[in-house]
Amino acid sequence: MVTYTEKENDKKISSSFIYFFGSFGGILFGYDIGVMTGALPFLQEDWGMQGNAGIIGWITSAVMFGAIFGGALAGQLSDKLGRRQMILISALIFVAGSVLSGIVPDYGQYYLIAIRMLLGIAVGAASALVPAYMSEMAPARLRGRLSGINQTMIVSGMLLSYIVDFLLKGFPETLAWRLMLGLAAVPAVILFFGVLHLPESPRFLVRRNNIEAARIILGYIRPQNEIEGELRQIRETVQAEESACRQNSWHTLLSDKYRSLVVAGIGVAAFQQFQGANAIFYYIPLIVEKATGHAASSQLMWPIIQGILLVVGSLVFLVIADKFNRCTLLKIGGTIMGLSFILPAIINSIMPGTNPMMIVFFLCIYVAFYSFTWAPLTWVIVGEIFPLAIRGRASGMATSFNWIGSFLVGLLFPIMTASMPQEIVFAIFGIICILGVAFVTQFVPETRGHTLEEIEAKGTKGEALVRESL
After folding, report:
1. Which distant-in-sequence residues (6+ apart) come within 8 Å of 145 by Cβ?
2. Residue 228, number of CB atoms within 10 A of its CB
3. Does 6 fall in a domain?
4. The dihedral formed by the CA atoms of 204, 208, 213 and 216, expressed in degrees to the nearest 10
5. Would you state the pLDDT for residue 34?
6. Which residue from 80, 170, 284, 400 has the least number of CB within 10 angstroms?
7. CATH code of the domain containing 395
8. CA angle, residues 78, 84, 85, in degrees to nearest 5
9. How many CA atoms lie within 13 A of 37 on its CB side?
């Protein structure tokens, strides 16, 4: 167990440092899910895999397959070892997986798939741990904005991978994709040494009965007049849930007490991926190739455009995060995203000769709205909606469902586009977007401006969490 002394309080860690490195795992998350976008065209050429949609889908989606298990495993272990310790372990897996990806033997498709599954365990762990850590460190009034930093880190990592891919495109094919994959080890090392200096979550420490350590850490990130009140509130919640925690199992997630909050959190996480965003992020060069007839390896500027839209959108979210209700933003974003996917199919059916680049234009609209609604808000809600007694397991479960969606989209998209027009494939995703809006309207409570303890107290009693303003 990590312990603290009064003397260590003199070595105060700045809140900015805590929030920056607390969310830095998102950089690795983003780099590893984005890098294959540019590496895949070179890998296809190097290993002669053109037309083999199944292998292409597996290599691309192997990270997401591993993440399914990484999210669930990290959720359980973080309740025993702590959020910080698990982020450190994830960083080490990132380093090992990145290096191994860069030195994979020639024509080692199945070896590369296995290594990317290993990387996926770390990616899934980061996607579960970072939102949980950030939500537990952030004050209620800033939780949406600070948790949104995680999304800014993710999309910054994606943009970084796109830029690296673009800069390396002039290298020989076999060297280009190896460098693209292997360079992920650099931010992983930075994450490891940064997290070494981070404190543990005060809520986790209270659960481990390390009250003084929790008080010291709250002193880093809260005004002095708020420390004792928040500590008391955390202790009361922990004490109330203590007996339940001892008896909790996976079945507890579906008990009458927690079911509505668990369904809401897991549902939002699943819909985020089944809406098809990662089909764009993983395959945009191939999408443009199919629309224009030009080689995918010459289309690496398009991922950068998408990455810029994502980063700008994440910054917009940081400004509006705590000014608008979570559900309002999800419904607006989901509606525009759905229309952006459905309209190309409608237009093409009315005017068959329409420029095929029209679909890329609508995809940019989709990405712009996704970037400041569903992309960041999913992780804000997952980080704040689950009660403390089940937060680790439920967050891990939500993350796993998110990665199941990501895995299936990554695996099936090249197969679907090989058998039907692209606009029809995206129209299917558009319908899922509209269903996501209906789900939010029916099942997801509003959480903006409420403390984690208020959300738990009302949610477990079935009471509504509402705010009068947008």
Report:
1. 318, 321, 322
2. 12
3. no
4. 40
5. 86
6. 170
7. 1.20.1250.20
8. 70
9. 35
